[in-house]
Predict the 3D structure of the following.
Amino acid sequence: MKNGFILFISFVIVIAASGCVSQDSSEASAKYLVYSNQDYGMEMKYPNGWDVNEEAEGIVVAFMSPAESESDRFRESVNLVMNDLSGQDMDLETYSSLAVQHIADTLQNMELEETASTTLDGNPAMGVIYTADGTYGRLRFLQVWTIKDDISYILTYTSESEKSALYSNTVGDMMDSFRINPIPSVTQETPNPEATDTTTKTTTSTDNVVGRWRAYSEAIYYDSGGNNYLDTASTRLLYINAGGTWEFGSSNGRWETKNIEDSDWAKWDTNPYGPTRKIVLNGWNDGVGDGPIEEGAARVDFIWLIYRTEASLGPGQVQIKFGHTSG
């Protein structure tokens, strides 16, 4: 969309509140369950007795170890983050260099201990180990990431520095079990000619944008200059319904598609690059959100939602890229 790109490496430290019931954390007795997420095309094992968290901002899923005691303030965790890199021509070496630099710039007193080439589900990957200061003291991180089909997959094990070996075998098993699966395509509905106003060329009710969509990326471009990539609730899906309605969490409204006009490109501050249609979500952010529909002859691949916002750092334009997920 906007010219220029700043790579955003999203990683999440999941910390649980105290007061959980103490459980046996013995690795020898660990029995594994399988977590599968069809919307994000992945699955992996996690120990029975660990909590599964799909609600933390910016993650697909986090697995959290049992509290060691009622006063335990920090629970070791393994989480998965996915980032969309489409159009960036990003290889693993370049991505890894930028990722390590981003981590060093972001975390307080970060010290890199080790980097090594490895594999993740048979794909070339990079593994890094580093420590940094956290709310509850010194933390140690083991991260492994790979890139497949323009999506990065980042697995992160976060522990208190002095306890990093506590679940080392378990974490190894979890990462070895990680699998990347094809994301099922939505069965597209054929547009209904009777639902199209041939004068305005506005389509509602039934269209090939109908289905479920997941956010690949969300960025804000400030009027004063600069931009920032935002953490989107990974498990929240955008539903484009055949009845002409849309839903996104607790928000909802009506949608339609229209031909893109020159004024749209000017409003989006983007040079025309191919799309001829736009989606319009009425009621989005208490106003209207719209954006280009990226499609081929057979299906819609991506839709964009672009809208104005008054952010804490100043007014700007938000751009969210959505990709099709299973229907």
